Amino acid sequence: MAHSYPRPLRGLKPVSSKVASSLTVALASALILAGCASSRGLAPEGRPLDADSLQTQRSLSGATVSEAAFPKQDWWTTLGDAQLNALIGEALQGTPSLDAADARVRQAVAQAGLADAARKPTLSGSAQYVGIQLPETLAAPPLGGSYQDIAMLGVTFKYTFDLWGGEKAKWLAAVGQTHAAEVEAQAARLTLSSNIARTYVALAQAFDANDVAKADFDRASSLLSLGRQRVAAGLDNQLQIRNAESAVASAQLQMQASEHEIEVTRNAIAALLGKGPDRGRDIARPSILQAATPTVPSVLPSELLGHRPDVVAARWRVEAAQHGIKASKAAFYPSVNLVALPALAVGAGNLGDIFSGDALQLLGGAALNLPIFDGGRLRSNLANSDASYDLAVANYNQSLVASLREVADAVHAARSLDGQIASATQARDAARSAWDIATQRYKAGLGTQLDVLAAQRPLLDSDRQLTVLRAQRLAASIDLDRALGGGLVLTSPASNTTSDSDIAKASTP
């Protein structure tokens, strides 16, 4: 590497062959002594799981399989509610949780920039002025009693040769962490949108539950009125009135609870939007939501790696930890630093000569640093890097296993709930038929109003059960879209990273 200065440097002689030979001997000796600080016996133990080794055929055998079953990026639109689409669109414009995720991305980018800057040469300038006047009692003239000063201009050049790739490995590790932070920012958006969708479904359920509670309150009130009439006519006693009053109070309690649930759920959606509670009061009752048929991709589980942000982020952290091991190993080897400090200096009265060759000073050379005995610092640092790699691998493996479990759970829940909804619908249809018959008999004078109100209770119970099951089915649909990555297509390091076995095979100092 060549360096030029404004003027030729005086008094410099080429390095003699004797000096060069001495440097060669010193370098060879350093390499021999490198064995004093050794990483032998230290190696990571973790190995990333092969996604295809996690079998899903039997667990997902009953699910509909499609080659294009990954959800769309705006997967929530399949629920069929324009207000929900607008709410999620509003949230994705920015909330505190997304701001925090984006800030972590910028922080990771800055850290990668610092790691990259450490690999490059540095050049800095300095200017200094020093003045002193010694009393004649300390020094005889002309030194004593006169003012002396010196002005100095200097330039410092530094460069560390990355002989073993340690600095590059640190930079690549920082880049891997940056990729992980970027993917986690996408994960935050997926989590936010799915949480809003789930809470919106809960709001729809609360409104439906309130409808059932109001109908039950009307039924109980009619029973109470009828009971009072029958007691007045001497047909019943106070027991029937007390039972009817209890039913009214119970129905009123259910109505109040559902109204409270509507308010707190609106507040929850407002908070997810990053807004105050008043924003929730503008949210209208959800329209009829639709739950899609559960469908899984035919390429599970391997292709899940490119869609699940938590799995991809975990894989990037494995990549970063892998480079961290290489950086820790490089610290065991000698390092060569190049330093040059040319400076111009002149004393008082000769400021015009500051740029002359006589004022030029030069300090520079190459320094060889070799770790020999460091109290175990390097070994502990490498052991920490190995443990960080094992932790990253364990987190990745856990993310992969958990993602497949979430897919299977969502599919099973959807299938089971479809069956439960079908059974509950049959029960409701039967209850509705019984209520219709009781109503017709009452109108024909063959039955009583008491028969009609009694037949209405199983119908309301079926309605209440259906509201819960339908909400759970919608939630299962949301969970499946989220488990499949929410339509994201992310870049994973699995295809461009070195084999994890290379960590164990790497040369050991």
Walk me through what this model shows.
By secondary structure, the protein is of the alpha+beta class. The chain has two domains: 42-119 and 162-334 and 370-505, Outer membrane efflux proteins (OEP) (Up-down Bundle), CATH 1.20.1600.10; 123-161 and 335-369, Single Sheet (Outer membrane efflux proteins (OEP)). Helix content is 56%, strand content 11%. The chain has a four-stranded antiparallel beta sheet with strand order 2-3-5-6, with no helix packed on it. A two-stranded parallel ribbon has the order 1-4.
SSE blueprint and pairings:
Layout: H1 17-33, E1 64-66, H2 82-91, H3 96-117, E2 122-133, E3 147-161, H4 166-232, H5 238-272, H6 277-280, E4 295-297, H7 309-330, E5 335-347, E6 360-369, H8 377-443, H9 449-483, H10 501-505
Parallel strand pairs: 1-4
Antiparallel strand pairs: 2-3, 3-5, 5-6
Helix pairs in contact: 2-4, 3-4, 4-5, 4-7, 4-9, 7-8, 8-9
Which key terms come to mind for this protein?
509 residues, Outer membrane efflux proteins (OEP), elongated, 2 domains, 10 helices, two-stranded parallel ribbon, alpha+beta, 11% strand, 56% helix
Shape designation: elongated
Q: Indicate the proportion of strand residues.
A: 5-15%
Q: What's the tally of helices?
A: 10
Mean pLDDT: 80
Q: Work out the radius of gyration.
A: 39 Å
Structural class: alpha+beta
CATH topology value of the largest domain: Outer membrane efflux proteins (OEP)
* Spatial strand order of the main sheet: 2-3-5-6
Task: Indicate the low-confidence ranges by residue numbers.
Answer: 1-17, 495-508
The name of the CATH architecture of the largest domain is Up-down Bundle
Please provide the ordered H/E string of secondary-structure elements.
Answer: HEHHEEHHHEHEEHHH
Alpha-carbon distance between the two ends: 28 Å
CATH class of the largest domain: Mainly Alpha
- Tell me roughly what share of residues is in helical segments: 55-70%
Largest sheet: 4 strands, antiparallel
**How many structural domains are formed by the residues?**
2
Q: CATH superfamily membership of the largest domain, which one?
A: Outer membrane efflux proteins (OEP)
Give the total of beta strands. Answer: 6
